[in-house]
Structures are given as C-alpha cells and as structure tokens.
Amino acid sequence: MKTTALIMAGGRGERFWPMSRKSMPKQFLSLTGTDQTMIQSTVERILPLVAMEDIYIATNREYRELIRKQLPEIPEANILCEPMAKNTAPCIGWGAVTIRKKYGDAMMIVLPSDHLVQQQTLFRRVLKNAVRTAEETGGLVTLGISPKTPDTGYGYIQYDTEEGTGFESAFRVKRFVEKPNLETAKAYLASGEYLWNSGMFIWKASAILKEMEEKLPGNYELLEKIEKAIGTEAEEETVESAFAQMQSISIDYGVMEKAENVYVLPSSFGWDDVGSWLAVGRINPGNDMGNVIKGDIVSVNTARCIVQGGKKMIAMVGMEDTIVVDTEDALLVCAKDSAGDIKKVLEVLRAVNRTELL
Questions:
Q1: Greatest CA span in the chain, whole angstroms?
Q2: Could you check whether the bond before residue 72 is cis, i.e. omega within 30 degrees of 0?
Q3: What is the distance between the alpha carbons of residues 116 and 197, in angstroms, rounded to a whole number?
Q4: What are the alphabetically sorted keywords of the record (predicted)?
C-alpha cells in the first residue's frame, strides 16, 4: 500500500518570540544548530520512506509562499492551506480525504513540523514498524517517547505492557492523559507504564476517516463535501465554507482518547518537541559555564543562560538561568523558570495594538 505523509505546519510558535513571528513562525526557522529550518529537517528525515510527491503540508494561507520557497520540491497541489485555524482534527481530516481521493486508500504518517529527531536511522526504523503495524491491524498507531524524567510539560500515554501486537514492540493503548502535576508525573515514571505523547500518528486514511465518521460526524460530513469538490472549480469555496462550520478540536480530544483500536510503539530516538526557548538549552551544547550562546556575546560570571544574539554585541555580567533573545526590533530578557509566560507578552502587545511586533 502507498505510504504518504502529512506534515502539520500551521502553528505560530509564540513561545519562541521574538524570533518567531506571525510572518515567520518557528517551523520556518533554524533553531536546532543546523542550516536547515525545522520543516526542512522534518521532510528530509522521512524521505527514505515517503516519496516527495506523496508528502502533504497542512498550513494556513499566509505560509504558502514560505513553504514554496523552503520546500520547492513539494507539488503545489500538496500544500493544503487552511482558510482558518481549527486545531488538528480538521486539518488531519482534510489531509485524509485528499489522500483518499487520490489513492483510494493509503498509509498516512502524520507529523508536526517543529520537532527534533537526533537519531535519524532509528527513527525511520521505528516509523517503518509503525506503518506495518497500522497496515496489518487496521488500527490507529502513535509513537510514545520513553520518559527519562517526570516532565510536567507533556501529555502521557498509558499502555498495556503485556498486550503487544507482535510487530516489534507495538502495544495496546489503555488511555491518554493530560499534562500531570509533578507528583503524578513521578508516579507515571515509576510505574513503567507511561510514555510521553509525541503527537506523531500512523494509520490508513480509511481508518482515521472511519473513526472521524463515528466520533466527529459533523466534521466528517463537511470533509466529505471537500472530498467531492477536490479538483473542481468549487474546491476553494467548499473548503472555506466547510472550515467555517467545523468544530475546532484536536485529534487527541476528538478521536484518539475515544478510539479503541489504538497502539503505541515505545520509542527513544533523541526526540524533543522544541516547544520553547528552554529546548534550545537542552539540544545545543553549552560552554564550561553551561551557557548556550549564539552571536557576539561576552559573558562574565554568567551561568546556565540561553543567549541568541542579533547584530549588536551583548555583554552579560553576573547573570544566571536567564534567556536573552535580541532581534532588530525587540529584545527579550526572561528568567528560565518563566519561559512559559512568554506568550503573555504577545497578549499585552495585542491589547495595546502593537501588531507590528507579533
């Protein structure tokens, strides 16, 4: 069966402000120490498994030209530009009906565009096993990351450690759980039954659409209208109308938490979701004081800081556990333990109508 991929690239990356902006969000930036942008890296790591012409990008309209510039090999018809943000279930559904329309049915690998995978060969091996599991079971498959710490920043997956499929460590999922508090996360880690939810999925297009028909019937009816309109003059108008009516809901809430035939492959391939500036500190080597720095930086008695310089020299004296990001029109100075509040800066900027900084 044909294997395809849908890469989700519509996010704003607000926790990476001020480098990530509405006009250039983080998936189109290089944040992981390579010359490639994050979406370019995502495409490259799956190319041995999926042909370029079978890779689809789900994004919004304002990023069409960015994708064409950074991924010129992707066919124009494979860039699915959502007219409005409606979370992951509608965008995955649109990808699924587009693939069903073209191929009748096919395997789908669904990936975020902004993750880091350091062990590429191992990742592809796990992904290949996941595709085989999804094809042979007809179920919904996800990749779970074996946790190393009791992290409170991820959702978790509880799985049945005894009930495997026989296809190289694929196990039945018991339940998906939300981001826990620290004590709960410690209990999850100690039990050995929980994995971090990576947000990566593998299934047949027909399998996910069947689940959507049952779990999200209103959205599914609208997706059917889109499918019928694909390739006609009414396609753009139909997509616009359908998205306006769809329920905005994530694939986790809308389908995965309610589905029964769900499997997970416990995985460990150097994964990071690169969710905030703290990730830059995790994935890049620090100097002898634990500082991760880029640019013209002078540091004196400064430790465990993340510094992204711009055109000017930055001098830091007596600083600890601080994030500093300099751009042409904005400077961020943030305590590491407040990194989750960076999005609140954007709320203030919107409130005072400083839209040129968003």
A1: 64
A2: no
A3: 14
A4: Nucleotidyltransferase, Transferase
Counting the structural domains of the chain, the total is 2
Q: What is the pLDDT of residue 153?
A: 86
Confidence at residue 167, expressed as pLDDT on a 0 to 100 scale: 57
Helices 205-215/217-229 angle, 10° precision: 130
Around 114, how many Cα atoms within 13 Å sit in the side-chain half-sphere?
24
Identify whether 189 is part of a domain.
Answer: no
Q: Determine contact, residues 26/274, Cβ cutoff 8 Å.
A: yes
The predicted model scores a pTM of 0.93
Find tokens 């599914």 and name the residue: 220
CB atoms within 10 A of CB 100: 20
| pLDDT tens, position by position, 329-341 | 999 999 999 998 9
3-class secondary-structure state, position 232:
coil
Three-state DSSP class for 173?
strand
Q: Which domain holds residue 327?
A: 277-357
pLDDT value at position 166? 60
Non-local CB neighbours of 89 within 8 Å, separated by 6+ positions: 212, 216, 219, 247, 249, 250, 251, 253, 254, 255
The Cα–Cα gap between 7 and 112 comes to 6
Stretch 152-161: mean pLDDT, rounded?
A: 91
Cα separation, 269 vs 148, whole angstroms: 12
Q: What is the DSSP string of 274-336?
A: --SHHHHHHHS---TTS-EEESSEEEES-BS-EEE--SS-EEEES-BSEEEEE-SS-EEEEEG
Q: Which of 228, 258, 288 is the last residue of a domain?
A: 258
Q: Is residue 179 part of a domain?
A: no
pLDDT, tens only, 265-309: 999 999 999 989 999 998 888 999 999 999 999 999 999 999 999
Are residues 318 and 213 part of one domain? no
